[in-house]
Amino acid sequence: MATTYPQIVLFGDSLFQGAADLVDGFCFQAALQSQVLRRLDVVNRGLSGYNTSNALSVLPQIFTAPGPGVPKLEYLFVLLGANDACVPLPTNHQGVPLGKFKENLARIITHPNIVAHKPKIFLVTPPPLDEIRIKVLDLANGHPSSTRKAKISASYSEAVRQVAAEHPGVTLVDLWKALMDTAIAKTPGFNPDGPALGDPESGVRGYLEHLLPDGLHMSSEAYQIFYRLVRDQVGSEWAGTADEDRVGYVLPDWRLAPWLEEDAHLKGKNL
After folding, report:
1. Closest Cα to residue 147, out of 211, 93, 80, 207?
2. 51: Cβ–Cβ under 8 A, 6 or more apart, which residues?
3. CA-CA distance, 190 to 184, in Å (whole number)?
4. pLDDT in tens, 170-214
5. What is the rounded CA–CA span in Å between residue 264 and residue 11?
6. Where is the SGNH hydrolase-type esterase domain (predicted)?
7. Which of 17, 142, 160, 257 gives 20 to 30 Å between its CA and that of 3?
8. In the chain, where does DSSP find H-type helix?
9. 3-state DSSP call for residue 172?
10. Which helix (H) or strand (E) holds 10?
11. Which has the closest alpha carbon to 46: 82, 70, 73, 74?
């Protein structure tokens, strides 16, 4: 049987699907894979357009219980909610009510196929929404109004925080806060005590323009902020060890491989 590598799975919507793209010299998935190379495989299961109900329906096709030839699920990152937060429109049916969204998230992270692997689970809040920008694009695409609202989207990010808090052992990654804090810090003169950046009530996009170019999906800079949030959460089992460059390798370092003993014996010298 072929050797399998333990996995980090990125499970979510287009925000994870886009994590595989190389933009402006940075790729979130590649950065994470480089960090865990030879120890873990980073598997992208970002599914553009999916909400939590869609994700639940395909979950058994993505995650199977442990068994012969089944890679161990070591880390699971879940980033869903951007589509669940869509408002009901005749032209868009992606939305999932807030209570159902929370229920779906809980069912995902407690699904038997996942729990059986005993992974470290991270729930990621969806990023902020630049409603000012997305409304322009939605109207141009034939929607009668904006498909998403900044305040509603923020409530779904808050729901992710609540679900993480309700499940011991689950780690929250507050992407909404990290991106909004960055945008506020880089928007001179903006008052954070009022309506948020990207909210039509504030009328200010500010630096969100650079982090969320289309109002929803993340720029290279935003993915770099995301990566900085998670990089120290992965690989603590070998970080700081004397041989951290080799500890945890699935297949041995060439200098430690068993065939070297045979080689040395044949050559009559140590390698």
Report:
1. 93
2. 13, 80, 83, 84, 86, 94, 95, 96, 101
3. 7
4. 999 999 999 999 999 999 999 999 999 999 999 999 999 999 999
5. 46
6. 10-225
7. 17
8. 14-17, 28-35, 52-62, 98-109, 112-115, 131-140, 150-166, 175-185, 208-211, 220-230, 259-267
9. strand
10. strand 7-12
11. 82
Q: How much is the pTM?
A: 0.92
Question: Which residues, listed in sequence order, are joined to residue 171 by a DSSP beta bridge?
Answer: 122
243-254: pLDDT as tens digits: 667 788 999 888
Nearest to 146 by CA among 197, 205, 209, 86: 86
Residue that the structure tokens 């919507």 belong to: 13
**Kindly report the CA angle at 81 between 16 and 236, in degrees rounded to 5?**
50
Residues whose CB is less than 8 angstroms from the CB of residue 96 and which lie 6 or more positions away in sequence, other chains included: 51, 52, 53, 83, 84, 104
**133: which residues sit within 8 A by CB, 6+ positions away?**
198, 205, 208, 209, 212, 213, 214, 215
Q: Which amino acid is at 107?
A: R
The residue count of the chain comes to 271
CA 231 to chain centre: 12
Residues 197 and 150 sit within 8 Å (Cβ to Cβ): no
DSSP state of 88: P
For the chain, domains (ranges, CATH) are 7-236 (3.40.50.1110)
